[in-house]
Design brief:
7-stranded antiparallel sheet; mainly beta; 3-stranded antiparallel sheet; single chain
Length: 181
């Protein structure tokens, strides 16, 4: 028997990412746990409307999604604790400008450079629908075929109801094989 628990968002945990963009010629970053896949070449990044970062994304049409691992978690958490409206976050991470012009964080093991296709607004949020322009991955997180290996990457996960960071777990089976037994 299931119990109704209201309209709680029940899709967590999600990968934790730092979104970067240029605002008035300087990099700015925000910690994001609201990410989604909307196709094989597009993602959705949802940010509360008041975020300073939103202005840069709208102005430049470009952003980076920098996946967070445990080594960069402290700095990632920091950029989620302070507002770019009051704090200059441009020096928090070492970066280089990617081909979209958005900041690629050196410490992030995997970075997706994106161009904004559209913006979908809901109450209190702007959701940026983004086309992936380029992906940067450290050599140590790819398999022999050049594909990202999440056993090696070990991204930090974010769980909203408790506001906790989680580690990825163990493999419990192969997709499209468990149901064929």
């Amino acid at each position: 028997m299931k119990k109704k628990i209201g309209n709680a968002l029940a899709l967590y945990p999600t990968p934790l990412a730092v979104v970067g963009t240029m605002v008035e010629g300087k990099p700015n970053y925000v910690l994001v746990g609201h990410l989604g896949i909307i196709g094989h070449d597009r993602i959705l990044v949802s940010l509360a409307k008041p975020h300073y970062t939103n202005r840069g994304i709208r102005e430049t049409g470009a952003l980076t999604v920098n996946l967070v691992d445990e080594a960069m978690l402290e700095k990632a958490d920091y950029v989620g604790c302070v507002s770019g409206n009051q704090t200059d976050k441009s020096q928090v991470f070492d970066f280089h400008a990617g081909e979209t012009g958005a900041p690629v964080i050196q410490q992030s093991p995997v970075v997706m450079e994106c161009r904004v296709d559209d913006i979908y607004e809901t109450e209190g949020f702007e959701s940026f629908i983004c086309k992936i322009a380029c992906v940067h991955a450290e050599e140590g997180v790819s398999d022999e075929n050049g594909k990202i290996d999440y056993h090696l990457l070990k991204p930090v996960l974010f769980e909203m109801p408790t506001y906790e960071y989680l580690r990825t777990g163990e493999v419990i089976g192969k997709c499209k094989t468990i149901g064929t037994k």
